Amino acid sequence: MSSDVVDALDALARLPGVAEAADRAREAATELRWHEGLRRRWREARAETAVRSAVATVALEGVRADAGWLRERVASGAVAPAGLPAGEALVLAAWRAQVHVGELLGDLGGRDRPPAAPAGELVAGLHRDLTAHLVAAGALPAAAVGRPRTDDQPREGGPLDPPVTLRGDGDPAPAPVGTELRARFAAVLAVLAADEAPALVRVGVVHGELATLRPFATGNGLLARAVARLVAVRSGLEPTGVAVLDAHAAMRPAAYREALAGYASGTPAGVAHWLRYQADAVVAGAAEGAAVATAVRAGRTAPA
C-alpha cells in the first residue's frame, strides 16, 4: 500500500473533532459487541440487519419499503426480482448486497474470516448484486456491471444536484470520465485496501467518494453504503456486522445530503463534518443493532 495514501488518510484523522468522533463510534460499537443477544444468535441478528439495512438504504434512493414485506419474501425464498415493480426489485437487490456483505465478514468472535478479495473484485461483486435484475430485464448492458462508466454514459443522478463534482473552492466542475474517472476510482480502491489507515476515515472516504464520484452507470449510492458497512466491520470500527449504519441517514435524508455535500466540497471543514457524521451513523446504527439483538434474543424480529 502506498505510504502517500496512508499519510493522506492519517491527515484527515487529525481534522477537528474527528478523533473524538471515532472514539464515540468505537465506544458504541463495543457496547453492541457485548450485547447478550449476540452470544449465540448473532447469525440471526445479522440476517435481520440485512433486512433493515436494505430498507434504510433504498429510502435514500426515494423508495419506501416495508421491512415486514421483505422478511416475508426472505422467509418464503421468494427473493427473485423478476416480474416485480421497479421499487420492489430494488429492495431485493439491496437486500442481496447486504447479505453478500454479511458473507464477507466471517464469524463473530472467530479468528478466521473469508480471505479478502482484491478491492476491485469486492466492489464489482457488490455492484453485480445491485444491478443483476437490471441486466436480466435488458435495462443495463452486462458490460456496465462493475466497470466505470464510459465517456458516452451519463453520470447517474444522486443526492447532490446538479450532478457534478465540486472543486476544492466549491465551484462546479464537469463530472470526470475516461482517464480521470479511472484514476479516481483506482484511488478509491487504494483507500479500500489501506488496512493500516484509521478506520473511521477509510469508511468515510470510501463512502463519500463512491457516492459523489458515482463511477458506475447506476447503483452508486446503494453501493457506497454497502461498501461502507463492509469496511466498517473489516476495519474493526464496528466489529459485529449487526449495526444498521444506514438507519441514521434514512431517518434524516436532508442531513445526509448536507454532510455529503460538505465532503464533496473538498474543504477541511466539509470533510471533517462528513467524517463526524459517519461516526454519528455508527452510534445510531449500533443503537439500532442493539434493538435487533434484543428482538432476536426474545424470539422476534419486528419492533414491539
Your description of this structure?
The chain is mainly alpha-helical. The protein has one domain (3-297): Fido-like domain (Fic-like fold), CATH 1.10.3290.10. The protein is 61% helix and 1% strand. The chain is built from twelve helices and two strands, in the order ααααααββαααααα. The chain has helices at 3-13, 18-33, 42-59, 67-76, 86-103, 119-136, 178-192, 199-213, 220-234, 247-251, 253-265, 268-297, and strands at 165-166, 172-173. The protein has a two-stranded antiparallel ribbon. The protein is globular. The protein starts with a helix and ends in a 7-residue tail after the last helix. This is Oxidoreductase. Residues 118-280 form the Fido domain. Residues 143-175 are annotated as: Disordered. InterPro entries: Fido, Fido-like_dom_sf.
- Report the C-alpha radius of gyration, rounded: 18 Å
Largest sheet: 2 strands, antiparallel
Q: What order do the SSEs take from the amino end to the carboxyl end, as H and E? A: HHHHHHEEHHHHHH
Shape: globular
What is CATH's topology name?
A: Fic-like fold
DSSP helix fraction: 55-70%
- End-to-end separation in angstroms reads 47 Å
In the CATH hierarchy, what is the superfamily? Answer: Fido-like domain
Protein name: Oxidoreductase
Organism: Georgenia daeguensis
Region (Disordered): 143-175
Domain Fido: 118-280
